[in-house]
Design goal:
Zn(2+) 1 binds at residues 449, 452, 492, 495. This protein is an alpha/beta fold. The protein contains 25 helices and 28 strands. The structure holds adenosine-5'-triphosphate and zinc ion.
């Protein structure tokens, strides 16, 4: 139950014979109060046992009854065992691990949900309607799907088959269909709707020789193992996932397809739906709590195997038997949950789950992480498969570096260099498109004084405030950590200078420059601010794919997954912002991002180009980007980190403390350090800190940290259970992050 910091376990009796089981949500009383609890463990006891209770001195106790069953989880013991093991791995109580694994809203479920079955929308063709001419294609498709299925279908199944509510509403307006609420059980006058929608599914592509080899290699892999699929951008990895999934489905096993970012979900879901129709479900933060609970339940009760496309938390779905787990873009750090606890990495979870259940894992990437690289057989656990050629047979696009120092020396002070300008302005005539990466969002990064160097900081956090600007031209400052907002000032409050201007370039600022400087170019902006709403990403990408713009300007997410044949130019405006982050993996991560971006160009018939603007063209990352030999980079990086004894050739663990009071937090950090120092010494780990976190204050809370560093694959030098938390003063929170990615 949610009692205390870690949640606590109590014992109750199922005297009302509700048949409760592991993971079920039940109603019990705690000190007279009705509360909801999760069933964490089960003991069968007979009256005789009770009389001779272990230890024998304890008299038989009267246990309170479980009052009601709210939700039955029906998870299998294998799944539960895995969750318990992961709790140990993440240094968290089994209760909190289970709570994190269950869909959000599970604990808040009302009993009434179960008592009365929900009524659903039923969509029915109007028999009297006259078929209009010139129906838009998708509306016609929907109409045909309904007709093929006998005239009606549940809206939720139509949704699953890719017919959104907009389309349904369109046909309602035309009077072609009507919609009513019905009880899901009385589907008497309907087809089993999924069959209707699954009628004209796409047929699989015939595989290239390389793809075929990968599929065969995977088929011969033992159950419970994994494969690293290293395939250059545009080499047809997704097609391989599709065909592997198809084989699993035929064998009656479920599939999980994971992607790091919610922005990549729509394209992936669309591709899987075209192939597998209503077998495809979604599970990610863009779904409502109710949808996630529903997908969870469908996973438990599905008669036929499913494909679930989701983000990292989908790794917990209780699908059984599970055949395949794919992690696309496996190198992406979004697979790691940093906060709140449990701080888990979906890749570790997936590998462990596969080992236990006999599923198999595919880690796909054009730029594999060093962690997976190091985990290759024979020393490690992963088989390696490669796709070295693009489907289009276009070579990877050549990379041109623009030295911005030279631009400046030549008196050219624009954001957009002359070579980039030239290429962009040639696009419309050639009927081609470009993507431009700006490594930060917002109007421009920060407000600074050119006279004294003062930068406007957030009063709550140790970060610069970002300048934002509305369409009407109004400017304001905003903190990306705590959402603090402030007005923009016209002069420096420190020295009074009027040379007080935004510095750096965000997507909005770049858009304005492009609009000014490249009249006649049509631009679209693709970042978190412009892709709001559930279908934001899909809408923008559709517009761009339909040729409504020449240039797509955006942040990180535009580098990934997009497959548009007319894009022949990929550019990055200021690579420097990426290269100089104070982060251990900055090199690896920026090269991954830049190669990913480069992979967007030249995927169709026409050759592509990549243009990188930077003030340090001699940076090793830029060199590797130009020569395109990612394998060489991995080898060098592995050597460097191996020699320096850095992760993944050692192990790290970060303890993060935060609290309202700076003094209390600092003291708690010091006390904690004293507590674990002897354990570190005994196990050959070293303890760094306590020290203030790199961003020492967020949303008014002080942050301190302890970094532990130890031998590869050794256990964390921490006391078990909740010991670490027991000594903490009120108001100070502690999170344990094993294998942290960011410090
Ligand atoms: N065997 C095939 N025959 C014909 N076309 C194919 C085949 N395999 C893939 N394609 C097409 O090639 C294009 C690129 O494939 P896909 O998107 O799967 O590559 P990818 O490796 O996943 O790319 P990226 O990692 O860059 O996102 C897609 O349009 C896909 O439909
Ligand atoms: Zn702030």
């Amino acid at each position: 139950m949610e009692a205390g910091r870690e949640g606590r376990c109590f014992t109750y009796e199922d005297s009302r014979r509700l048949g409760v089981d592991l993971g079920d949500l039940v109603v019990v009383r705690l000190r007279g109060r009705r509360m909801q609890g999760l069933v964490m463990d089960r003991r069968i006891s007979s009256p005789v046992d009770r009389g001779q209770a272990s230890g024998s001195e304890a008299p038989p106790r009267h246990l309170e009854a479980i009052e009601a069953l709210v939700q039955s989880a029906a998870v299998d013991p294998l799944w539960f065992g895995w969750i318990e093991a992961m709790a140990v791995h993440c240094h968290i109580s089994p209760f909190r691990m289970l709570k994190a694994a269950l869909p959000p809203g599970w604990l808040g479920q009302r009993q009434s949900h179960q008592a009365e079955p929900r009524r659903l929308w039923w969509v029915q063709l109007e028999s009297s309607a006259i078929n209009p001419q010139n129906l838009p294609q998708r509306q016609a498709d929907l109409q045909a799907a309904l007709a093929a299925g006998g005239g009606g279908a549940w809206q939720r199944d139509l949704q699953a088959a890719g017919f959104g509510s907009g389309l349904v509403n369109g046909l309602i307006k035309r009077g072609l269909i009507r919609r009513e609420k019905r009880q899901p059980t009385d589907a008497s006058n309907g087809l089993s709707c999924s069959d209707a929608c699954d009628q004209d599914l796409e047929v699989p592509q015939s595989l290239t020789v390389e793809q075929q080899e990968v599929v065969e290699a995977f088929q011969s892999q033992p159950l419970g193992t994994g494969m690293l699929l290293w395939g250059v951008t545009g080499s047809g990895k997704t097609e391989v996932y599709l065909q592997l999934a198809e084989r699993e489905l035929q064998a009656g096993r479920h599939c999980l397809i994971l992607t790091p970012e919610i922005g990549l979900i729509p394209q992936l879901v669309d591709r899987f739906r075209r192939r597998f129709g209503t077998k495809v479900l979604e599970y990610h933060s863009g779904c409502s709590d109710r949808e996630r609970v529903s997908t969870w339940r469908q996973g438990l009760t599905a008669a036929k195997p499913l494909v679930v496309v989701g983000t990292r938390s989908a790794v917990f779905l209780p699908l059984a038997p599970l055949g395949l787990i794919v992690l696309d873009e496996e190198h992406d750090s979004s697979y790691k949950q940093e906060s709140p606890m449990p701080c888990y990495h979906a890749r570790d979870m997936a590998m462990d789950r596969a080992r236990r259940t006999g599923a198999r894992v595919v880690l796909g990437s054009a730029t594999p992480s060093l962690v997976s690289w190091k985990n290759l057989a024979p020393q490690g656990q992963l088989a390696l498969a490669r796709l070295t050629r693009r489907i289009s047979d276009q070579p990877l696009s050549p990379v041109h570096v623009v030295d911005m120092r030279q631009e400046l020396a030549d008196g050219h002070r624009r954001l957009i260099s002359r070579p980039l300008m030239e290429r962009l302005s040639a696009l419309p005539e050639a009927g081609e498109q470009a993507v431009v990466l700006v490594p930060r969002r917002g109007y421009s990064s920060f407000l600074s004084c050119r006279s004294c160097g003062e930068v406007v900081q957030c009063p709550n956090c140790d970060v610069a405030l970002t300048v934002h600007r509305s369409r009407q031209g109004h400017q304001w400052l905003r903190c990306h950590w705590c959402d603090h907002r402030a007005e923009v000032e016209s002069s420096c409050h420190k020295c009074g200078s009027k040379a007080f201007k935004p510095f750096g370039a965000g997507t909005q600022r770049v858009m304005e420059h492009l609009v000014e400087e490249l009249q006649g170019l049509r631009l679209l902006r693709f970042d978190r601010d412009s892709t709001g709403g559930r279908d934001g990403h899909r809408r923008l990408l559709e517009q761009f794919a339909a040729g409504e713009a020449d240039v797509l300007v955006g942040t990180q997410m535009l580098a990934k997954g997009m497959d548009l044949p007319r894009v022949t130019l990929a550019a990055v405006l200021a690579a420097d912002g990426l290269l100089h982050r104070p982060d251990l993996q900055a090199g690896e991560q920026s090269l991954q991002l830049l190669m990913q971006l480069a992979g967007r160009a030249g995927r169709g018939e026409r050759p592509g180009h990549v243009l990188v603007q930077t003030y340090c063209p001699d940076h090793p990352v830029i060199h590797h980007l130009v020569d395109g030999r990612y394998g060489e980079f991995l080898k060098e990086e592995a050597c460097l980190r191996h020699e320096a004894g850095l992760v993944p050739y050692s192990r790290a663990c970060l303890l993060r403390l935060s609290g309202d009071s700076a003094a209390a937090t600092a003291t708690a950090a010091a006390v904690l350090a004293e507590q674990i120092k002897p354990l570190c010494d005994a196990q050959g780990w070293c303890l760094i800190g306590p020290a203030p976190a790199p961003i020492a204050r967020v949303a008014g809370r002080s942050r301190w940290q302890l970094l532990l560093h130890g031998p590869e694959e050794s256990p964390l030098p921490l006391p078990s259970g909740s010991t670490l938390w027991n000594g903490l003063p009120r108001g100070v929170a502690l999170a344990v992050d094993p294998d942290p990615i960011q410090l």
